[in-house]
Protein 1
Amino acid sequence: MAKPIMAKATAVWLVDNTTLTFKQVADFCELHELEVQGIADGDVAAGVKGFDPIANNQLTADEIEKAEANPLHKLKLKFNAAAVGEEKRRGPRYTPLSKRQDRPNSILWLVKFHPELTDGQIAKLVGTTKPTIQSIRERTHWNISNMQPIDPVALGLCKQSELDAAVQKAAKTKAAEGTPMDDDERRKLLSTEQSLGMEPEPRIPSAISGLETFSLTEDDAEEKQEEPIDADSFFNLPEGGDEDEQP
């Protein structure tokens, strides 16, 4: 339920000018019922001037009359002034001063590990400008020699869900364009949840690398099968061996 502006002052006015129950006033102003009772007793909000919700377009007189006639009726806010704000700001997101020095490092990380992201996506993720991103892509940034790639999520510049959404969007764009991708590019286009859920790829030890396609020829296989193992042959001496030993 939306909360009226100047809730405590509104509760003071309702307690002084209506016969609403403490619960009705508490529910409408999002206060505790005991706090409203304290307002009625003069123990809470002493000296607070009442704020007329009718004159300030928060309630109508008819709504108050309905609630007075029915203690179970809940007051409904007519106009939520707190929801009215300035138009959504366009442009890069705001980055706190304490984190701005780490922003180039995060841009370098995104450019290195997610080159498929557009400059606009990177600018939206970490709150930067396209000329800065372009200078880091081309390695013409004035401090490029001292920069280290650091994950923007670890720096707190964006959320992991936002980064995953940008990567998935880039993956859809790549798929729609029909651009061929190698295995490394496909892995980069996976979200964190997808990559963590994948089974590790089996790898062949380097000591036996190249032997994965090794197989016996048909002749070798038949020869192995045609030569049965004779246990007696292991113990038979060569012919004439005893005669040579006799003087």
Protein 2
Amino acid sequence: MIPYASAAAAEAALGRSMTWAEAAWFRYSARTPDYLLYCHNIAILFVVYTVAPLPLALLELRAPPKLTSPYKLQPRVRLSPAAFLRCYKDTARVLLLTVGALQLVSYPAVKMVGIRTGLPLPSLGETAAQLLVYFLVEDYLGYWIHRLLHTGWGYDKIHHVHHEYAAPIGFAAPYAHWAEVIVLGFPAFAGPAIVPCHMTTFWLWFVIRHIEAIDTHSGFNFPFNPTKLIPFYGGSEYHDYHHYVGRRSQSNFASVFTFCDYIYGTDKGYRYHKASLAKLKDGNGASDAFDTSKQD
């Protein structure tokens, strides 16, 4: 809640006129308790999870296979509409019971680390720098947690649920055991805890991170995807290999970038697989990304 009775009072405190974004934020949040602003994350999460994977789901379900197969990483795998719906319903239920519950009780931690709701709003440069830090922190911590989840106990008790989709789809990005959803939430929160931000940046961080997860689980590798311009970005092909190999996978643990796997040597199976596919393509023109025997 912004502690000003009017826009004039807010501008007097700022010592300048509000920008259009600040004026909009003032109108929206001036009389809304900070706790309710924080709980917006629940609604934002469900809107993004429902809307973002939908175009690719419709493309896979409705478009002719001849149109989508060149871009589908595992073209021989075709899920039914019922399978898509089951994935959505099961994941939505887990998100509601885990992330929703955490949102309701974790507000004191948000206040303690210094997430703010007042004016001024952060600049674009500040927001971009903070988001970069959050991605780097989440990627590094998530890498090690993911590796632990591929140990015998971690996989058998928890992580096997996420790997039920050997050919992932966007709706399966957060499809996981409830314990995994909770555990992987900590790396996502670690960045804002280290570098506190404005609530709007906090919202934006979780929106972008969730869209990124949907992208890497999309099952499609489009040549015109703008994420290909991001340095060290793994992308859908990189993570799809991890799902394709499944339980035996000791490759491609990082959630966003590729450098942790490179530094710690956990991309060797993937690089070997890519080299094998390149030789196969040179030999007989094969082009399907994951239609050869599984490598590790």
Protein 3
Amino acid sequence: MYKIMIIEDDISIAETIKNHLSKWNFDALYVTDFKNIIECFIQFEPHLVLIDIILPFYNGFYWCNEIRKISKVPIMFISSASDNMNIIMAINMGGDDFIEKPFDLNVLTAKVHALIRRTYSFVSNINLIEHKGVILNLNNTTLIHQNKKIELTKNEYKILQLLMENAGRVVSREEIMQHLWQSDSFIDDNTLTVNITRLRKKLAELGLENFIKTKKGIGYIIE
């Protein structure tokens, strides 16, 4: 079942869209907290986003840009602000389609089906891990925090993935080495230390100096 996220501050419109899409076997969710849209996006992991331009706090262009920093999920604008400038802006900010309000729900559904068909016939869904505002993209091994993005090496990515998936639990050095090299053969213990040190330097670039903590004689933890 494909998941559709609706970012629309008119609750009656949002509920109408949600109910209609549900009849077509979509799992639809509309946003109610317009300050924390990215957190909702990460938790829900939608396959497609419907977004209005005029929203509380920040407009749809802003949130489209924020989503584009972490995902290639298709985004369709739904708005009555349908002059040429807004349509051009929507596409330039990363939108994939635009439908003018008021619209026929069947036309909207046809556009949703078309976007999903074009996107997921060829591209798999974007997978993310999020912890305290730190976002690890599992598809392209990038890390994002406070609008900054860094590229991780294969080993750095695998270490961080394991630690973030086990946030709150100490992960032993032996477990990390097994995860990295998938071998019971001897690996120089210093090799892991070097990888951890390099990863911490990259995290420091994002202002995350203490993101990974050492538990002496045991391993590492992300709290």
